Q: What sequence folds into this?
């Protein structure tokens, strides 16, 4: 059973929805790879997930759908949707060296921005949708060396492009194009000088997938999410996707090949990678039958081993089903948070053992249940969860939760 365009349009037209099919909530979990850098502050996470130190903070404005990126010791929380349903250009910036927050601005307020890092130096805020849902080519760039903002442009305008930092090259992959009818196959590679080179996904159907990149090995995976089985037709047929693209960067050259199909196609999964293990967890599937489509949220976690190029035949399970979970790598761990109102607990996958950390009583937990929140990790050890919606989606929050796993 397909999900047709008019269904999505009616959702968008009726007002912005937090569970909009065309615009998945969790950009951050899908696009950000953990940050690591070479100097003395960039430390590995402490071994014991039970002793992560918690602290709170506040963004300058309560909001949801925030785009996040981490570069060097800094994290950026850009744009988003305010309580009064307008978009903001505000960027809250946290610097781990000083422990201080500051406020900056994008060149234009917009939604569905793709955020990520380039060459360990730049934070980019690419594309997005304007208030009429028109895709944008605008890219705001923050240079952590000069502390200055500039703007550049994508060849292909898109909303919610996925950003994969593959080390020496960052790939800007897919997104929402045209009038939201079509999914983009466009790929743009960006190198150290912010020059760009155009490429394209090699898979059969245009796909709006989950992107997970390992900047150390230069391997990235774009998979799951949904695809349009009738591109170019008047009515699209959006189906959950098993198409997988493997990105490989070696030196300054990048390539894409088609990988083995995602074992359990679904919408709304999130992913991250640590130690060469790529984990994709949560999401939802549509029930079959000819009544109204209904969804079942899942607890399944699929694992991909970059060394063998294989999906594991033994998927893991989260402690609760989670839809659009926040997923971040923290040291050797992959952390799943949110995506449920059943549990504040973090599910913590230890990539050294390939299993979840047990001891439910003592593992770290969110203080505030929220949807549409943003997550990012600084220096591969400081996990920050910010903003989102509280009170069953009624109110935007400014609250920030920080889980510090850095060795001091
Ligand atoms: C929405 O809220 C923001 C921040 O409180 C405010 O600056 C802006 O003027 C408001 N816009 C509208 C249209 O109410
Ligand atoms: C992948 O999905 C397609 C439908 O889009 C299906 O025909 C195919 O059997 C799937 N492949 C696997 C290995 O599940
Ligand atoms: C939630 O938002 C509404 C406006 O949408 C406001 O009237 C109400 O006071 C807010 N509640 C809290 C607890 O902030």
A:
């Amino acid at each position: 059973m397909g999900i047709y365009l008019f269904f999505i349009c009616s959702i968008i037209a009726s007002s912005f929805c937090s569970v909009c099919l065309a615009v998945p909530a969790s950009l951050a979990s899908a696009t950000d790879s953990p940050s690591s850098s070479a100097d003395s502050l960039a430390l590995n996470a402490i071994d014991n997930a039970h002793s992560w130190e918690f602290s709170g903070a506040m963004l300058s404005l309560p909001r949801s759908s925030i785009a996040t990126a981490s570069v060097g010791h800094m994290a950026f929380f850009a744009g988003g949707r305010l309580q009064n349903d307008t978009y903001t250009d505000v960027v809250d910036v946290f610097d781990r060296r000083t422990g201080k927050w500051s406020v900056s601005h994008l060149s234009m307020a917009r939604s569905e921005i793709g955020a990520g890092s380039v060459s360990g130096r730049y934070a980019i805020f690419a594309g997005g949708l304007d208030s009429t849902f028109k895709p944008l080519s605008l890219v705001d760039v923050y240079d952590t060396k000069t502390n200055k903002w500039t703007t550049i442009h994508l060849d292909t305008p898109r909303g919610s492009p996925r950003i994969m930092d593959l080390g020496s090259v960052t790939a800007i992959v897919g997104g929402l194009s045209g009038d939201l009818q079509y999914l983009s196959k466009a790929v743009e590679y960006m190198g150290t000088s912010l020059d760009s080179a155009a490429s394209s996904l090699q898979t059969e159907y245009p796909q709006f997938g989950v992107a997970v990149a390992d900047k150390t090995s230069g391997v990235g995976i774009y998979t799951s999410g949904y695809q349009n089985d009738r591109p170019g037709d008047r009515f699209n047929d959006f189906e959950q996707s098993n198409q997988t693209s493997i990105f490989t960067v070696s030196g300054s050259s990048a390539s894409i090949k088609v990988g083995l199909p995602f074992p359990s196609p679904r919408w709304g999964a999130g992913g991250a990678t640590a130690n060469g293990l790529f984990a994709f967890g949560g999401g939802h599937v549509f029930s079959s039958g000819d009544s109204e489509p209904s969804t079942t949220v899942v607890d399944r976690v699929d694992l991909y081993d970059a060394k063998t190029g294989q999906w594991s035949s033994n998927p893991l399970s989260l402690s609760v089903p989670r839809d659009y979970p926040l997923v971040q790598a923290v040291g050797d761990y992959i952390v799943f948070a949110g995506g449920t109102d059943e549990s504040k607990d973090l599910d913590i996958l230890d990539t050294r053992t390939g299993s979840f950390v047990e001891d439910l009583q003592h593992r770290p937990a969110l203080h505030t249940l929220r949807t549409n929140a943003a997550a990012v990790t600084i220096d591969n050890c400081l996990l920050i969860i910010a903003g989102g919606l509280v009170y069953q989606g009624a109110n935007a929050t400014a609250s920030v939760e920080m889980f510090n796993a850095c060795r001091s």
